UniProtKB/TrEMBL annotation:
Keyword ATP-binding among UniProt keywords: no
Any coiled-coil regions, as ranges: none
InterPro entries attached to this UniProt entry: HATPase_C_sf (IPR036890), HATPase_dom (IPR003594), His_kinase_dom (IPR005467), HisK_dim/P_dom (IPR003661), HisK_dim/P_sf (IPR036097), Sensor_HK_Regulatory (IPR050736), Sig_transdc_His_kin-like_C (IPR004358)
Gene3D superfamilies: 1.10.287.130, Histidine kinase-like ATPase, C-terminal domain (3.30.565.10)
Catalytic activity, reaction form: ATP + protein L-histidine = ADP + protein N-phospho-L-histidine
Name this polypeptide is given: histidine kinase
Taxonomic source organism: hydrothermal vent metagenome
Length: 252
């Protein structure tokens, strides 16, 4: 068979695989959305009879959790589509307080972390430089996903370390956990869209497998790099982002 023939066959299989994964994701979207709707209706009926019902709080938590799951799946798909179509340009601005940005990002995960007894610690070099990045997109597409992955794979009672230091004219942002880690042979593949560790035909972990792909796209648009390592303390995963002080989109 010719090389072209082989390539065509390979691309057909990839497209089929992506379609299958997309339909499985859409299927996953249905259950959180259904949960949102039924919990909201139950809450609505209950609260009319009894505003002090203790179950109301539980329903509200379920609504929030399901809502966030659905939202992050949809967000991942939309981000990928936009960035791949070249429609989502970065808008770098001066960032004076990297530590503050890290703390604010972490705060949105506090509730989930406390519920599972997971500590999130920040360690930064002092002082850090003023940089020129698109912090909004870095938080939304990269940091949020690294921290949510770290939480997803952390054992109860675990610790997540978020750190920032300089190396030459780069800032090194790192998110480390003490979870199951990423085997060395999977460390590149997980950055490809829809890929999760150890998976060939089924998805075991919730999520679309788009988070790291999107994170890499946004980091590369800053002229930076992102990769996975062993956590410094041996067990668990570390995800490292190298970002130049001033974001510069590389020439294509
Ligand atoms: N902190 C981590 N510890 C262990 N495995 C991880 C971690 N972060 C990511 N992974 C692996 O990389 C895969 C891809 O991550 P991601 O692109 O964010 O997709 P998703 O979170 O939707 O699965 C995960 O499914 C998991 O297999
Ligand atoms: Mg993820």
């Amino acid at each position: 068979m010719t090389q072209v023939g082989n390539k065509e066959i390979e691309e057909e299989t990839i497209t089929e695989r992506h379609n299958r994964i997309l339909s499985s994701i859409t299927h996953d979207l249905k259950s959180p959305i259904n949960a949102i709707i039924s919990c909201a209706s139950l809450l609505n009926e209950k609260s009319r009879e009894d505003f002090s019902d203790p179950m109301s709080g539980e329903f509200l938590k379920m609504i929030l959790k399901a809502g966030h799951e659905a939202h992050s799946l949809v967000q991942g798909i939309l981000t990928m589509a936009k960035m791949e179509a070249g429609k989502d340009k970065i808008e770098p601005e001066l960032v004076f307080d990297i530590k503050g940005e890290l703390s604010e990002t972490i705060n949105t995960f506090r509730y989930e972390a406390e519920a599972r007894n997971i500590k999130i610690i920040i360690e930064v070099e002092n002082p850090l430089p003023v940089v020129r990045w698109d912090m909004k997109r870095l938080r939304l597409h990269a940091l949020n996903n690294l921290i949510s992955n770290a939480l997803k794979f952390s054992p109860s009672g675990g610790t997540i370390l978020v750190s920032a230091e300089t190396d030459g004219n780069m800032v090194v942002l790192k998110v480390e956990d003490d979870g199951i880690g990423v085997p060395p042979e999977e460390r590149e593949r997980i950055f490809k869209r829809f890929e999760q560790v150890g998976l060939t035909s089924t998805r075991v972990f919730k999520g679309a497998g788009l988070g790291l792909h999107n994170a890499r796209m946004i980091v590369e648009r800053h002229g930076g790099d992102i990769y996975a390592l062993d956590a410094t303390k041996g067990k668990g995963a570390a995800f490292v982002m190298l970002l130049p002080f001033t974001a510069e989109e590389p020439m294509r």
